[in-house]
Amino acid sequence: MGNSDVAMPTEVDTTFQPTRSAPLLLFGGPYGNLEALHALLEQAARLGVPDRNLLCTGDLAAYCADAQALVNEIRARDIAVVQGNCEQSLGAGSDDCGCGFETGSACDLLATQWYQYTMSELHDSSCAWMRRLPAQIDFTWGGRRWWAIHGGLRQNNRFLFASASDSQLAAELPQTADIVVAGHCGIPFTRAVSGQLWHNPGVIGVPANDGTRRVWFSLAEASDDCIKITHHALSYDAETASRKMRARGLTVYAQALLDGLWPSLDVLPRAERRATGKPLGFDPIYWSGDQRRQEYA
Ligand SMILES: [Fe+2]
After folding, report:
1. CA of 62 to the centre of ligand 1 (A)
2. pLDDT at 222 (0 to 100)
3. What is the pTM for the complete model shown?
């Protein structure tokens, strides 16, 4: 890997400045799924969301076929991206994805296949760019302080699912944030904890193990008295994405795109395992956070 483009990683990025006049569009885990990214960008255009209001919680390159093309598109649009464990590992030239799978588990064995493929697919300059991505993006929007991270606050490959306890989530919510936007776990959910909000918009690269081909993103809209968050299912050309994966030998996850089920449930807590194959649905969330609200400069 060449080193002409190398710089120290930026831990916290404070330059993300979405416009208040449009919603925020939050998404995670594109995983090299170019067809899903294109569907998302088309949806953003339909909704009137400019690129500057898009925020990705990381893991651009993983299970699917088009890591390099996807990175090209994200970079060309200058979309804000938090460094996921995949960017961290690919950027460092590590031997594995850093997902935190137990050695020898099904997830670990499956990861070996796509990680090697993705590593060979990405250009050196993309790995160098990934290395420079921020571990955290802090911004103020709608009168609230937001922190975007990948997994957990101190561990970017920590799996935090909807079944996490209030105390587990509270430990990951910094006092200086009103809303934490996180990714990594692959299944969307939102929880209010002690006047703060934990929000995971889900991922667009692989279905949510709910037995459908849909993938997930979210929209945040701000009014004077609350933040409204809506989880959105996204349909896209999964057949084409899956066919390209098969052609490159990424057969197991190619099937996951079509049947909507994860090939391994190793990382799932019991509650999420029981929800396998049950289609997800969400009501809108109206969150005021009144007890914490401040006026930020
Ligand atoms: Fe991740």
Report:
1. 9
2. 95
3. 0.92
